[in-house]
């Protein structure tokens, strides 16, 4: 159980939520795990759905406290809300900004600032931790260029320029990404990003990691009442969670890329975990996907200190905190959306 920004996160599996007076009580096999007053809460997010009492759902609905149910892995299931009061205003604000390029750019550039800042941090960390295994000067050069692009992004006034600078940053980062593969170099080679379909083992893993991250961010956005399909930088397209793609930009490198690199460098995946189809697509085997998912869930339990809040949370809650911060910005509670800047 973790309370952040007036939201209660219930992460213990098989936990039943009940009401006692003006308090939420957490039960597991009739044993009380915790108790918290409801009057200061705005939302409850429960992972590993077991259930909630009708009394609790009614109490929360009357007081505009939303309850979101997700699977233990973070897939969104349902959200219980009362009469539409706050969320309709929040979504109308989101839709209005998405139709205004200038305002969309002001929001979207903070996502990209987070992405580039974190990419730069990854490169700098590699030069400190593995100076004899990477081309330090090439990494430093790439880092300096990212710093220049970062300043250009801060001054961006339109989405076309923002997308252009984001693309330049990605090209610059990808040029040295392959050097961060320190083990199994013959079987895990990276020459650039290939998507539909992935053409090598590394891209197959990156595509899978990005899909998982997009699903986690989509669930987080839905849990705070935002529309995951209406973005600011990624344009609307049927079936595409554009806002989730926006928000996950700052987490791609620091979360997904480093996760993939760790699996390769720790030899938790090998060449035997992949196969090539007739059209050249490289895919992971079923067993490899299961192992990947298990490791992903383990990663989400690791504790970090959130750089903006200064509180300890698990990696798995980062998408939810960022979604909450975005919702607070759109409501006018924050002057600016604070991107996730890892240190």
Automatic annotation (TrEMBL):
The keyword Transmembrane helix does not apply. InterPro entries: Cas1, CRISPR-assoc_Cas1, CRISPR-assoc_Cas1_C, CRISPR-assoc_Cas1_DVULG, CRISPR-assoc_Cas1_N. It comes from the Bacteria. One of its GO terms (molecular function) is hydrolase activity. The keyword Manganese applies. Pfam families: Cas_Cas1 (PF01867). Mn(2+) binds at residues 166, 234, 249. CDD domains: Cas1_I-C. Its cofactor is Mg(2+); Mn(2+). Keywords: Antiviral defense, DNA-binding, Endonuclease, Hydrolase, Magnesium, Manganese, Metal-binding, Nuclease. GO terms for biological process: defense response to virus; maintenance of CRISPR repeat elements. Its EC number is 3.1.-.-. Homodimer, forms a heterotetramer with a Cas2 homodimer. HAMAP family: Cas1 (MF_01470). CRISPR (clustered regularly interspaced short palindromic repeat), is an adaptive immune system that provides protection against mobile genetic elements (viruses, transposable elements and conjugative plasmids). CRISPR clusters contain spacers, sequences complementary to antecedent mobile elements, and target invading nucleic acids. CRISPR clusters are transcribed and processed into CRISPR RNA (crRNA). Acts as a dsDNA endonuclease. Involved in the integration of spacer DNA into the CRISPR cassette. Belongs to the CRISPR-associated endonuclease Cas1 family. This is CRISPR-associated endonuclease Cas1. It comes from Evansella caseinilytica. The gene is cas1.
